[in-house]
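To: structure desk
From: M.T.
Subject: fold request, one chain
Message: Could you run this one when you get a chance? Sequence is below, nothing fancy, just the single chain.
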Amino acid sequence: MRLLSLLGLGLLFAASLVDATEQQPEVDTFVIVHGATGGGWDWRVVSEHLIEAGHRAYRPTLTGLGERFHLAGPEVNLDTHIQDIVSMIEFEGLDDVVLVGHSYGGMVITGVMNRIPERIKHATYLDALLPDHGMTAEQTTKLPIHTWPVEAGVVKFPWVDESKPFPRDVVHPVNTLTQPVEFDNPLAHIIAATFVAFIPNGQTLQQWQAERSGWSRAKKRGWTMRIFDGDHVVYRAKPAAMANLLIATVSDRNSSAHGRTNNPVDISE
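Reply: Done. Structure tokens follow.
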């Protein structure tokens, strides 16, 4: 009788362990790539919210930007920035990465997906440039980059105010904007991906689309389409909501590129 009781307790204990394991939330690894003129500093608060939610978050700064602005020059190109992220992922030993790119960061994560698709679990493009194979950032955006002042291999974007204290936006290595990206690896094309448009108050999705080309490319690829209320840097005003958005996108799955395309999901906060 005592033996049966012990066996029963053992089975209950084993069942409780299985149940506890099943209830544990999945821990995801986010690598956030900032936009032009920015730096990892710009995503600190969003990363903190991701970590508080039980995930891992990395926010590397690209060469020549942020705290690495002193490395800017004509020798820095798109390949440099792609290698920045590839090296970080490989040296940190990361797998099943949720790769996030904001704005110009979309160019970078496109190249990273092409280089190491086996390490990427999901890609999320936040109001980002989305190129086809062989396109440059300058070709992907409708901003008049060619009209902005260039000196010593860097271009000064209109919003860069060098009189402000750090941390702040800085001048950007110009050759990162003129080098074509590679996106011809078949394995990169099957990575689950999400495209998020930041729609400012008073603007419609149609108006947003008229100013940008990424939406149509993402839709043709069968990616999940989402919209989020706010301007291009809304993550600064809504870091918690942005973290929740990133967590939500992990479960997004691609539809057939030759079948239906996903309708946009409004996750406005």
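Reply (cont.): The first strand starts at residue 29 and ends at 33. Let me know if you need anything else for the meeting.
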